[in-house]
Design goal:
By secondary structure, this protein is α/β, with parallel strands linked by helices. It has two domains: 53-224, Rossmann fold (3-Layer(aba) Sandwich); 238-330 and 351-455, 3-Layer(aba) Sandwich (Rossmann fold). Helix content is 34%, strand content 22%. The strands form six sheets. The protein has an eight-stranded mixed sheet, with helices on both faces. The chain has a five-stranded parallel sheet with strand order 4-3-5-6-7, sandwiched between helices. Helix 3 (67-76) packs across helix 11, helix 6 packs across helix 8 and helix 12 packs across helix 16. The chain is elongated, with a radius of gyration of 24 Å. The protein starts with 18 loop residues before the first helix and ends with a helix. The structure holds ligand PMT.
């Protein structure tokens, strides 16, 4: 079942495409470098490098006057840029300016018969490798968060699979408003990347967060951490992922569990699916919706998780154990609800089956990735687990006091026998994409070695 990923020649994830740039801080110095670099990124579908196609959405804020400069910077950097303006944006800057700097016709009307005939909004959505909205107003962020399609820009965002980046620009009070912050969280949760806002003097005379990040710095950020392009890194592969907590019954109404929300595992399932894999998600009890296109199998106990995973492991190429599985379970769960008759009681616990170890031990098993949840000595303990459990890779996270479990953001230290990578703190959907990129890369090396061993 082991197959090499379609993008076998991938030299690294997008973030590793240019280590010099990746290491650079965002800023004018980096932007100066960026201008000499070309926004020519591997599309990761086996085709040759292509010119990056950026659809720039311009919404109606004062900062719209900076958007033509942004177009210029992007095109100078080698990208192809097409501009979509909202009606409000046209009150700040004329379409002719954007047409001049991009060399492309500017679109603004969903009901433009002529433009729709030549290049419909769906075609525009397909054209874009990346959608960048700068400036992005509070109203636009709210529309995007709500999934509205009431103008050309929101419709294209909804119709496109391209990664979306937004550079917010608004009054500081509007930015800090709970509604805007809630929309920000929704968008980040869906993998939309926010660039800024910056802090400082505002056009309205106030001071605070809400200024659009400068065009140079937006370009530098794009190059420092290139957006994930729609890729097929895991095409043809089956990925089985465990997620969430388990529940170990004490009696018919009580159980032992932990604080796992399932977010990290579900984000991985979504990212693996986006990367083209067939995904089986073996999930403990969570309140989360199943990611689109993912097959979910619900379980409750560690033993049920073990059984469900082994039912599918024969057809699995990559196994990721992200679930927080109870290490111990009550030895003899009571058949009836325990009565509150004694002043104290003790519970006898026995070790539960370790799904991860059992998968790693399989002859001709899948590429096996474990997680390590640690409260201290992260790297030392994770490396011990990697070795003791004979894993191909382990993703370690610090947990406790709002970290790891049930948090929106996370950071990972990823170890494999001959290397390590640090994935910086980010919303779990973004972090999951980065981890999937890394897994795809390591899987590829592993599958190549494995094939070589078999043919030797
Ligand atoms: O779900 P979230 O709220 O988003 O939180 C994410 C997370 C913190 C749960 C996740 O990032 C994480 O760390 N998951 C692993 C939690 C854990 O149980 O770690 P551990 O170090 O105790 O276990 C090591 C590995 O063995 C894990 O891959 C685990 O899935 C696996 N294991 C453990 C025990 C067991 N009986 N069977 C197993 O398969």
């Amino acid at each position: 079942m082991r197959q090499r990923a379609a993008a076998a020649d991938l030299e690294g994830s997008l973030a590793q495409w240019n280590p010099t740039l990746a290491a650079m801080p965002v800023g004018r110095k980096a932007a100066g470098f960026a201008l000499r670099a070309r926004l020519e990124w591997p599309i990761m579908d086996g085709s040759n490098n292509a010119q990056l196609k950026i659809l720039l959405g311009v919404t109606g804020g004062v900062a719209a006057y900076k958007a033509p400069e942004l177009v210029r910077r992007l095109t100078e950097s080698g990208a192809a840029v097409r501009v979509v303006m909202t009606a409000a944006a046209q009150r700040f800057v004329g379409a002719t300016t954007f047409q001049a700097v991009s060399g492309e016709p500017v679109r603004s009307d969903l009901w433009d018969d002529q433009a729709e005939a030549a290049m419909g909004h769906i075609e525009l959505a397909r054209w874009a490798d990346v959608i960048l909205v700068a400036p992005a107003t509070a109203n636009f962020m709210a529309s995007l968060a709500a999934g509205l399609a009431n103008d050309l820009l929101t419709t294209v965002c909804l119709a496109s699979q391209a990664p979306v980046l937004v550079a917010p620009a608004m009054n500081q009070a509007m930015w800090s408003h709970p509604a805007t912050q809630a929309n920000r969280r929704v968008l980040e949760g869906r993998g939309v990347r926010l660039i800024g806002p910056a802090e400082g003097d505002q056009a309205c005379g106030e001071i605070g967060p809400g200024r659009m990040v400068e065009p140079d710095d937006i370009v530098a950020e794009l190059l420092r951490a290139p957006p994930r392009l729609v890729s097929q890194l895991l095409k043809g592969l089956t990925v089985t992922i465990t997620a969430g907590p388990t529940r170990e019954p004490i009696d018919p109404v009580r159980y032992i569990t932990n604080r796992s929300s399932g977010r990290m595992g579900y984000a991985l399932a979504n990212a693996a699916r986006e990367a083209g894999a067939k995904v089986i998600l073996v999930s403990g009890p969570t309140a989360l919706a199943t990611p689109a296109g993912v097959r979910r199998i619900d379980v409750e106990t560690a033993q049920e998780m073990f059984t469900a995973v082994h039912r599918h492991i024969g057809s699995t190429d990559i196994f990721i154990g992200c679930a927080a599985v109870a290490d111990y379970r009550p030895e003899a769960p009571a058949g009836e609800k325990l009565k509150r008759s004694e002043s104290s009681m003790s519970l006898s616990l026995v070790r539960s089956a370790d799904t991860l170890v059992s998968v790693a031990e399989l002859d001709d098993g899948p590429f096996t990735v474990g997680f390590a949840a640690e409260t201290e000595h992260l790297e030392r303990h994770a490396r011990q687990k990697l070795q003791a459990k004979k894993l191909d890779m382990i993703a370690a996270n610090e947990v406790g006091r709002g970290k790891g479990f049930d948090a929106q953001n996370n950071a990972l230290l990823v170890l494999w026998p001959e290397g390590r990578a640090e994935l910086a703190r980010a919303p779990k959907p973004l972090l999951a994409q980065r981890l999937i990129d890394l897994i795809a890369q390591r899987y590829d090396a592993w599958a190549t070695d494995d094939n070589a061993e078999h043919s030797a």
